[in-house]
Specification:
By secondary structure, the chain is an alpha/beta fold. It is built from 34 helices and nine strands. The strands form two sheets. A five-stranded parallel β-sheet has the order 6-5-7-8-9, sandwiched between helices. The longest helix has 19 residues. It is elongated and about 110 Å long.
């Protein structure tokens, strides 16, 4: 079927006028196109003329006039596919998405091989957050018209929004092959590279764009993200600041400003700007920006309300369901969080960030079978992408007898300590093992695992047959809750250091080593660290000695203790020592109990088999199982969970109750 109304009865003059009017409108000479039609009544009354007139009004922003013209064209020629398609664009411009989709569907029913209609249909689906369906629509468009740069571009944007960065990169590359140096495609390509944890390439892609467009706010944001992942923090902050300077006070500018302020850590300002964007009718994106600020401020109930409001602007996309899932988890609504993750995955099934975050919930709930498999998706993310041996293939459990294997610590020291338990199992592979760990761990691990080749994480050699992260070992060894290897202790303190600290600490009182603060750069530290003054009820128990195991961070709090609270310190051997963990390990042998926030010290005490009480936040944490006080990882550890978000007083009061009875019985 023809998509046009037919021209058999059109005079040559009318046909010429229609052609001239279409050329004027196509070139942006809208007034000239309309005048050409108005001067020749047969052309104006023809369905094609009405369609051209509608497109002129549409490009001029006169939506109602455009719709009237398209309706007139369709009334004269109901099977005029192009008019249905044009009408769909006008409906989309006016925000009438469902009607627009119906118009494109009608155009395609009349003309299935119509690339522009498929493309426009994809645009509506993308705007609705139906990203997989949008990609399918763009697929139809580019299959029918491979040299359709806009379709390749928008296909890339939809793929990127659904977390499919690798195919998105290919789509942007195709768009650029058809239209070189196209700034939107360059921006998309750089964004995809950054999300594929290729920040150096992202930076190389975005810098030429910024040289030409130094005030491109989106490009500055991508540059800031790339620099952040390259650990060039000062330069990243500079890019985010320039992004702020380049933004206008338009609704879109306010939304981007709020996002940049969150990246800069200026969360109260971000919230205020997001509220301005909402007042300016910024729609779902403005509410999403507000939710991001509220999250950083720890206001999770308000964040969830804001996300729910964002959902009222149209069918929620993967990002919104993902954000709701994470927030519901923070609020302890774990069944609802799991359902929201399911919805997010149904829309953007291959999004590594969503799948990884869901793995944390699965592991917290004891579903190790699915949880560890999903946990491997983290390796696709820039946060976890560091592999010391460069492009050396990852080991996934295949036979490796006689081959060289680099085993490396991935992120925090606590994570490394927790997973060192797998080294005896690794030894059964009969591979030639090298372990790369943080410098602070090297002495302790060397004394605990004699005969193992151990190197600094940042100085590991590159020539290995395979490499594997310690954090991947639970998946490779198919760990379940009841098969967690617990050869406690699997770390050992040095005898000479143990004797030193037993002599220095002495045997008086009930000796409790305390650690209250983690690494402030850790994203969860705000919720997991405990104010030192919160330990005051423990210090008040007769016979109790509190002894600081704190190193580097949080030591400033010792200067602000109330007059009736005493905490003993052990000097720079603990507080500021590159081998401090080896020293702390020895100190624990001279203590009756270790009480710690969820930090490396808690893992250390647990791995040493020392009696340990760990205060953990209300929000779910993958390593501490739902509803349990005894973690499968450390048989000598007892968990004290916040009864509500931020309620450390409740945790310390519970500890005080148990401790008073214990100390009283011991005296």
């Amino acid at each position: 079927m023809s998509r046009g109304p037919g021209r058999a009865t059109v005079s040559r003059q009318t046909e010429a006028v229609l052609g001239a009017a279409a050329a004027h409108v196509g070139a942006g000479r809208l007034r000239a196109g309309i005048k050409a039609l108005e001067k020749h009544k047969p052309a104006l009354e023809h369905p094609t003329g009405q369609n051209i007139l509608g497109n002129a009004h549409l490009r001029a922003g006169r939506i109602d006039a455009a719709l009237a013209a398209f309706d007139a064209a369709i009334a004269q020629a109901p099977r005029f596919a192009e008019a249905h398609c044009s009408r769909g664009v006008a409906l989309q411009e006016s925000g009438r998405m469902l009607e627009a989709l119906a118009a494109f569907d009608q155009a395609l029913a009349l003309q299935p091989a119509y690339p522009l209609a498929h493309y426009n249909r994809g645009n509506v689906l993308k705007a609705q957050g139906r990203l997989d369906a949008a990609v399918r629509a763009y697929d139809h468009a580019v299959q029918m018209e491979p040299r359709f740069p806009e379709a390749h571009l928008n296909r890339g944007i939809a793929l990127l929004s659904s977390g499919q960065s690798k195919p998105a990169l290919a789509a942007f590359d195709r768009a650029l092959a058809l239209r070189p140096e196209w700034s939107e495609a360059v921006l998309g390509r750089a964004t995809a590279l950054e999300r594929l944890h290729r920040p150096a390439e992202a930076l190389a892609a975005i810098d030429p764009l910024l040289a030409a467009e130094p005030d491109n706010a989106d490009a500055l944001m991508v540059r800031g993200d790339a620099l952040t992942h390259l650990k060039r923090g000062d330069e990243a902050m500079d890019s985010y600041s320039k992004c702020l300077d380049s933004l206008t006070d338009s609704t879109d500018g306010l939304i981007k400003r709020a996002t940049a302020l969150v990246a800069l850590g200026r969360h109260d300002e971000a919230l205020a700007v997001a509220d301005r964007a909402i007042a300016a009718e910024g729609g779902a994106e403005a509410h999403m920006a507000r939710a991001a600020a509220l999250r950083e401020l720890g206001r999770f109930t308000e964040q969830l309300d804001t996300l729910d409001t964002a959902a009222t602007f149209g069918p929620p996309g993967e990002a919104l369901h993902h954000a709701r899932a994470v927030t519901l988890g923070e609020l302890g609504r774990l069944d609802d969080a799991d359902a929201a993750f399911e919805q997010a995955i149904a829309i953007g099934g291959s999004n590594a960030r969503t799948r990884y975050n869901r793995s944390l919930l699965l592991l917290h709930r004891g579903d190790f079978e699915r949880g560890w498999a999903e946990h491997e998706r983290r390796l696709e993310l820039p946060d976890f992408a560091h592999a010391p041996a460069g492009s050396t293939p990852r080991w996934s459990g295949e036979a490796i007898t006689g081959k060289s294997l680099l085993v490396y610590a991935e992120r925090g020291i606590g994570d490394a300590i927790q997973m060192l338990r797998y080294l005896p199992q690794l030894a059964t592979t009969r591979a030639n093992l090298t372990l790369a760990v943080h410098p602070a761990l090297k002495r302790l691990v060397t004394s605990s695992f004699t005969g193992l080749d151990i190197t600094d994480l940042d100085a590991a050699p590159k020539d290995f047959d395979r490499q594997v992260s310690l954090m991947s070992l639970p998946h490779i060894f198919q760990t379940r809750v009841d098969t967690v290897p617990v050869p406690i202790p699997y770390l050992d303190a040095e005898d000479a250091l143990v004797e030193k600290w037993r002599d220095r600490i002495g045997g008086d009182g009930f000796r409790i080593g305390i650690c209250w603060s983690g690494d402030p750069d850790h994203q969860a530290d705000r919720g997991r660290s405990i104010p030192l003054t919160a330990f005051a009820p423990l210090a008040a128990i007769p016979g109790v000695r509190l002894i600081s195991l704190q190193a580097i961070n949080g030591l400033d709090q010792l200067a602000d203790l109330p007059s009736d609270m005493s905490v003993e310190t052990l000097g720079d051997d603990i507080a500021d020592n590159p081998d401090g963990l080896a020293e702390i390990a020895a100190v624990t042998a001279a203590l009756d109990l270790v009480i710690s926030a969820d930090t490396a010290v808690a893992h250390l005490a647990g791995a040493l088999g020392r009696p340990t009480w760990t205060g953990i936040r209300f929000q779910p944490e993958w390593r501490w199982p739902e509803g349990k006080s005894e973690p499968p990882w450390y048989p000598t550890m007892w968990l004290f969970r916040q009864p509500a978000i931020g309620d450390w007083a409740g945790v310390i009061n519970d500890m005080s109750t148990y401790l008073s009875k214990h100390v009283g019985a011991a005296r």
